Amino acid sequence: MYYYTIKTCVFEVLSYNRPAFKQYFMNHLPIIAIVGRPNVGKSTLFNRLIGRRYAITSEIAGTTRDKVSMWWNCNGYEVLLIDTGGLENEIKGHIEKLTIIQAKAAIDDADLAIFLTDINQNLTVDDLKAAEILRRSKKNVILAANKCDNPKLEENIYELYKLGFGEPIPVSAIHEHGIDKLSEAIEKNLAKLKFKKPATKVKKNDVVANICILGKPNTGKSSLVNALIKKNKHIVSDIPGTTRDTLDTEVEFDGKKYNLIDTAGIRRRGKIEKGIEKFSILRLEHAIDKSDIVFLMMDGSTKISKQDCHIAELALEKNKGFVLIMNKIDLLKDRQKDESHLIAQLRFRFDFVPWAPVLFISAKTKENVTDIFNIADKIMVERIKRIPTAELNNFFQRVTFKHLPSSKNLRKPKYFYATQADVSPPTFVLFFKNVQNLHFSYPRYLENELRKQYQFTGTSIRLKFKNTVKEVKEK
Predict the structure, then answer these.
(1) I need a labelling partner for 328 at 20 to 30 A (CA). Which of 168, 221, 225, 282 fits?
(2) Is the peptide bond before 168 cis (omega within 30 degrees of 0)?
(3) Taking a C-beta distance cutoff of 8 angstroms, is the pair 198, 207 a contact?
(4) DSSP 207
């Protein structure tokens, strides 16, 4: 019904209406992987080529773990560019082992590899290991020497001929030196591989929903994405904080396309470390901004914490769709009793979002995971729901008459009329006389009544209050 392989990354980045388009571009669009040992500047080069800061960069070796991919136009060629984790000769731990497996998988499915080295240092065992892996893959390889900021250091470039990949291209990913020459080399290699530049730009097919998966570390966010795409695309480990980059993965289910955004786990503010983790949180805020629905994932085998509630507030501040997910239900002893207890806890701790649906899943056993798409469909319908102005005014006339707005001031607020100004999220503008004297609880009353009548299940709504003369208050 839906599937995922590295080759179909091309279809995931550009989705086409007709099956013929899908088959053609899956077979003919080039995939380029940037590979090399840790800390040679692969992520910096990746960001430079795509023209924006997407992959997290740091001086700390091993920052990149999962494959990060993005669409890139190289002198007219439509290319899927993949940033990979560092290849090392000596595997230090479980996460490093999984990182190397991911990098090797990217090389196997790539049509062309950019082998990046550091001109500031002599060749290391890790460089030789990466070269050996690339030779065994029998892929076309472009050798690039990064960090060529000092002309004196370019003399060291001759040592790179030992790697056996021809003449190295000196570049500086930070200062954009040599990027044009690298692009020309990529263009020539793609021409030799008989790839063709598309005559016209094919329009992208919009996904049904952008789904952002949030949660504390080690709640199973990456496991959920892997379960949905039926592929171990994202590195999964019992070690908290494994995921660092914000990773987009488009998946097809029942003929519809969804973009899943896997994010780094959010720890308490006092425990967030400077550097890589802080950059991960900044990327996470951007992920929430571009999402339509946020799924807050929690560990069903542990207690709901204050941090879970804080994460929920991040999504609600952006007026997104919102769903509560309890993962690891396979660990519950008495399913019916424990689920009832968890629902009671959720409704108590998240009493500020009584409209949020609750879903129990097991990413490990894949139980109920596809229900995420069904819930997303329903929420997207709610987010674009429009109420005719006449009907809306009749409704607010009734509810404001049933419970008149009170105030301690002599000048009492009085309702005049309302209109729906926008969707995604549904936004309503209400005009009052003396709106500045509205009691703080009255907007909450109006929202509750609005939800009783029109549901808006799973989505935030916005109520803006304006004076008949000028705007003075907004919720």
Answers:
(1) 282
(2) no
(3) no
(4) P
